[in-house]
Amino acid sequence: MADDGRGTGALTLDATVLAGLDVLPDGVAIWGEDRRLAYANGALRRMLDTAPVVGEAFEAFAGRVAQSRELTLMDPDEWLAAEIADFGKEKSADYVLAAGSVMKVTQRPIRDGGMTVAYADVTSIKRNEQALRAAKETAEATDEAKSRFLRAANHDLRQPLASLKILVYSCMREESEQIRSEMLHAMSVAALIMEDLLGALLQIGQLDAGRIQPRVTSFQLSQLFERLAIQFRHQAEEKGLKLRFVIPRGTVATDRALLERILSNFVANAIRFTEVGAVLVGCRKEGRMLRIEVVDTGRGVKDEDRERVFDEFYRAAEERRGQKSGLGLGLNIVRRLAALLEHPVRLRSEVGRGSIFSVAVPLGNVWHSEGGEMEISETVAGEFAGVPVLLVEDDDILRRSMTQLLQRWGIAVHAAADEAEAVRLAAEGVSVRMIVADFNLKSRTGVEVVQALRAVFGAETPAMIVTADAEPRVLASIREAGLPVLIKPVSPPRLRVLMHNLLFEPGQVAVPN
């Protein structure tokens, strides 16, 4: 019996019980109170090269296992000492075998002394647990990324809403028909931007639910290119880039809104990742298709990132290190929209030289045209006649509408799109009595810009912060810096009250939110 693991040692083992143990898929070992092996079934001998033999002392078996390296052990000597000390105690542990499988070892004491030890192969269970953990972590990371995206979308939505609110307030008091007409057009532009943003949010939800149905029409690409030029011109200029659109002739047949979403993501990415040079948007004919290409002279995409850049929430290492990098949704939306439209998307890139993102669209045959954009400028006196104010706001439309509102109140507005422009104005001798700064500027916070301007002015110039980010920690950080804050969209009456307090009653500044 000793050779086949059926010896009894110091225990008397029933033959029927032994026969039952031998057919178990898990390994079983029974150790007597004399710490010698009384029984080991066939499954254990198949599982372990170092399986014990009947009559072998537990200490000798454990020593062989520690020296064999059949189990992946951090410290074999420490493990051996613990095993010898824990003989007969109830415990369970998982071990990784050298072959990569996972074995659960569970020992239990028996009534007359000694112990039984069960050996189970739990490799598949552990792999499933690991897969579930990875899926859970991925889901949590996805939820967090989506939350960040929604916060950013909320901020972007508040910008045109703030412009619209100010324009409505100003328009109600404007007598000039020409100026009212310009204001109404600006309201229309702001409303269209809001509509686009809300549509994008809805689009993401619908994409996730598979509910978007393309509405294919034929239209001129020139109209779409004009909208993209207006949308991205300022961003390109801020980075010193040339943004050029080669207007094509003819029409295409596709869903106009979805194609604009694809191209706007391409152009936004091209500007974001191009530091020097230009971004060119043009077309080339391919049979009955028109391939629309966005060409940049940026950093390019590494070979290992070519496919992954289209994954949801994926950002290359360089982008993750950026201060205001994207959230990794744009190109994923592009891929899904292109698949929905059955428009092939292509990426060609060379690291250090640039990239070409493109989408192929069917040619159409019906002309379609829309009106272009207009700019607004007006000068109307208001209540704070002659008071010089420095406005720092990086959103073009909001900066124009805020400037217009303040000018209606008689304020002499010095408007800046970023910190550098604001500091330059201050250094050139512009003297102001108040600073109004947006919080979420492109490179610095409004609080930091106010501090920089005060240093240039050499005085604690009254200042306020306006922000679309209503998170408590953001508002608390602004107030901790000693600055009052208004949340966008800013109500003109509230703005007027706060400005009045800062200028004429600085000891009683209250934010009417």
Automatic annotation (TrEMBL):
<dbReference type="InterPro" id="IPR003594">
    <property type="entry name" value="HATPase_dom"/>
</dbReference>
<dbReference type="Pfam" id="PF00072">
    <property type="entry name" value="Response_reg"/>
</dbReference>
<dbReference type="Pfam" id="PF02518">
    <property type="entry name" value="HATPase_c"/>
</dbReference>
<keyword id="KW-0418">Kinase</keyword>
<dbReference type="InterPro" id="IPR001789">
    <property type="entry name" value="Sig_transdc_resp-reg_receiver"/>
</dbReference>
<dbReference type="Pfam" id="PF12860">
    <property type="entry name" value="PAS_7"/>
</dbReference>
<feature type="modified residue" description="4-aspartylphosphate">
    <location>
        <position position="438"/>
    </location>
</feature>
<dbReference type="InterPro" id="IPR036097">
    <property type="entry name" value="HisK_dim/P_sf"/>
</dbReference>
<feature type="domain" description="Histidine kinase">
    <location>
        <begin position="152"/>
        <end position="365"/>
    </location>
</feature>
<dbReference type="InterPro" id="IPR003661">
    <property type="entry name" value="HisK_dim/P_dom"/>
</dbReference>
<dbReference type="InterPro" id="IPR011006">
    <property type="entry name" value="CheY-like_superfamily"/>
</dbReference>
<keyword id="KW-0597">Phosphoprotein</keyword>
<protein>
    <recommendedName>
        <fullName>histidine kinase</fullName>
        <ecNumber>2.7.13.3</ecNumber>
    </recommendedName>
</protein>
<dbReference type="Pfam" id="PF00512">
    <property type="entry name" value="HisKA"/>
</dbReference>
<dbReference type="GO" id="GO:0016301">
    <property type="term" value="F:kinase activity"/>
</dbReference>
<dbReference type="InterPro" id="IPR005467">
    <property type="entry name" value="His_kinase_dom"/>
</dbReference>
<dbReference type="InterPro" id="IPR036890">
    <property type="entry name" value="HATPase_C_sf"/>
</dbReference>
<dbReference type="InterPro" id="IPR004358">
    <property type="entry name" value="Sig_transdc_His_kin-like_C"/>
</dbReference>
<feature type="domain" description="Response regulatory">
    <location>
        <begin position="388"/>
        <end position="503"/>
    </location>
</feature>
<keyword id="KW-0808">Transferase</keyword>
